[in-house]
Amino acid sequence: MTPTPTYTERLATARLLHRFNFGPTPGEFAALLKGGLAATRKRVLEHGLPDPGLDSVVAPNLPDLGPYPQGNTPAATAFYQAMNTGNQELVVWWLDRMVVSHYPLAERMTWFWHGHWATSVSKVGYPLPMQKQNETLRHYALGNFRDMARVMVVDGALNFWLDNEENYISSPNENLARELMELMTLGVNKFTQDDVTAAALALTGYSTVQSNGNVTFNEEQHYSKPLTVLGTRGPLNAESLAWLITSKAENAKYITDRLWFRFVSGTSSPPSSLEESFAGRDIDELVSALVNSPAWSDPANSLVKSPVEWFVGACKALKVRPSSLNTGDLLWGLSQMGQVPFNPPNVGGWPYGQAWLSGAAFQYRFEVSQLIVTAGDLSPLNVSPSKMVEASADWLGVPEWSRRTASTLAAATKTPSEFATLALLAPEYAVSA
Amino acid sequence: MINCEFDRRRFLQWTGAGLFATASAQLSLESIAGAATTTPLPASTPILVIVTLYGGNDGLNTVVPFTDPTYQSARANIALSASQVLPFTDSLAFNSVMPEMSALYAANKVAIVQGVSYPNPNLSHFTSMAIWQSASMTAEVSSGWIGRWLDIQPHSPFNAIGIGSTLPPLLVGDKSVASMVDLGGIQLPWGPAASLIPRLGRSSSSDVPLEGAAATSISDLFSTAQLLSPLVTKSPTGSFISEQLSLVSTLINANVPTRVWEVNLSSFDTHVGEKADQNALLAEVDAALGAFMTSISAGGRSNDVTVMVYSEFGRRVMSNAGLGTDHGTAAPVFLIGNTVKGGLYGEQPSLSALDANGNLVATTDFRDVYGGLLHDVLGTPVGDVIPSWSTALSVH
Lengths: 433, 396
Prior knowledge:
The complex is a heterodimer. By secondary structure, chain A is mainly α. Chain A contains 22 helices and six strands. A two-stranded antiparallel sheet of chain A has the order 1-2. Chain A has a two-stranded antiparallel ribbon with strand order 3-4. Chain A has a two-stranded antiparallel sheet with strand order 5-6. In chain A, a hairpin with a 6-residue loop joins strand 1 (206-208) and strand 2 (215-217). The longest helix of chain A is centred in the N-terminal third of the chain and has 27 residues, at 74-100. The radius of gyration of chain A is 23 Å and the shape is globular. In chain B, the strands form two sheets. In chain B, strands 1, 5, 6, 7, 8, 9, 10, 11 and 12 form a nine-stranded mixed beta sheet that branches. Chain B has a single domain (42-185, 229-385), classed as Alkaline Phosphatase, subunit A (3-Layer(aba) Sandwich), CATH 3.40.720. By secondary structure, chain B is α/β, with parallel strands linked by helices. Chain B has helices spanning 8-16, 21-26, 29-37, 69-74, 99-106, 125-134, 145-151, 209-228, 240-253, 274-298, 366-376, 382-385, and strands at residues 47-53, 63-64, 85-87, 93-95, 110-117, 160-163, 179-181, 260-265, 305-311, 331-336, 343-345, 364-365. Chains A and B meet through helix 10, strand 5, helix 18, helix 20 and helix 21 of A and helix 6, strand 7 and helix 8 of B.
């Protein structure tokens, strides 16, 4: 007979599932507890395998809508409708992938990178370039960061978002150059204003077709003379700039810190050994080191789930496909909670931690919980009332309900929908303890 | 707004009338007791309204040194001409999209603090905004300055209220956070689970700090909803900033016991096509502030309210070829109110003696502005909120 798992084992298992896999499917938490922590670590790291869960998720087939139409014509109306529909389909498609993937790490990492290279459709406008960027992020999500950076620096959506359209030799626009170094590769104070000015010149000569995200390079408009960036002198273009920047040790430290911050703790710093695992910029290796680190049993490392993480986790547990919900209700709910995929508030990505824990956000979390519970499969609650509270902690992957929540849930055992609502709204489910 | 007056009698009427039948009946004793003994904000209590402009508002096209030849030459492609400004001295003018601010300034109700920034300016949005919102130069301090002010107040979910659903760092303290009220109104949970949901807001000894914060957010929603939800109705469609400020003026005029309010507007990061974009945003801000001051002036809090308008930095003196400007440093801060001593404070930074990056050199430290507001409006010694800072710029 297997011994009853300790609280620390439950905590570590729950954290690994929620933080790297968007939470457990029904039964998964209990099964992984039985298998032990080593097997759980292995399980949450699985990726790159044929994923039958994703077979049924069809990517929206987005046409190139061409330039913005002039005037108030039926063609203009159709154009905006197509743009709007495409953008909605894109969000729902990605949420579906997060929920139904059998190996969710890849989607989880794509979600992380989306917040890292935070590009918003609010300015890009068209869904097609956003979809292309999303596929790029997915392709490199667990690959080599230097390769990712080299491709992302000429990504159409990112170039448009950060005004590289308007970056001229005669008058460089620093937006992409600065954010590339500050937010995407090195971190603040790891470069000088001279580095920004030079990097902006390295990024001249690229133009983006806004409607499809195609980037073309025009040699004549590119600054081809030698530039000094981060102490290295030579001619640079976008790709060689990204290659140069990501060769720096600061890049390894910065990306390691970012992963630690979003996956482990908003308050502590990673051990230096973690950074060493990223020496070759292999993201897979870094994520493995993170999953295999002792951090998961340290009680201090709690995080708040972002609204999308909370939503996807709930959909997984209740077996709800986001595309089966009313799209308008779903997007309204996500938007009110403050997080719609493809629409981060700014280039710094989404807030974190306590920012999500307001009373106003809670009222919308309730509304969204009702969409999920109404559509959801509550059969894991088909146990005797005396077992329901305990069973629900396993169902949702909660290490332990507090006495507050346990007694509240115990008062609702007669009505599974009521019970499920309370469980999804409990502080222990809003937070990954 | 008489029928929106909040006082104890009315509060009892509401609850007695059963408007909150489901929710209030199930509120914990503690929150009911707390709410019932809450008094309206005492008369003459000063109130601070903070308006955050995200993205780095171009101060030079807001308060315009329109006669300075360097201004005209450095940004020839976006400079405002004499016909596009509303002068208030022989060398300074408001952008002409700001008639309300111009009129308020003429009535001595606007203090313009010139050239405000902090030492060794950082051109990062995020670092710069973190410095402004934490009032700390080190990344180790993540609490907001209003959050730290909340930490030393007796706890009440009403002390500070932000508009929206996501808490800005400014409003997060080490122990306390502000409440958030969304423009969409306050809708308490409904349906069969509604009666049990308030119980999830109780604290539990096993809570980790973030779980405790999640529980507090739930209990704060219920305790603020009783007082606020009848007042928070979807306002007529205006700009985002005018809807936010209109809600704040409604709640202030109803004597909600709140000392600090926060609203914000984004998209000031005008690297390209600045003139059209910034003018549109400033016009919205100006109209919203004008309507806000009209509403406040007509209510019982006419002399209590001070508004601060700030952004994380101004922009480069030299414009770029994309008809925009890159990240800069110092910019003016507006302090607006019927008891504010209007006029110019600090010094206008030189357009020719720039720093190594071609940016303005600050003449006033932003912590002096906060110091004045802490002292004059919030009645708190500056050092209690901003450790090791003691100077203050008073505009009252």
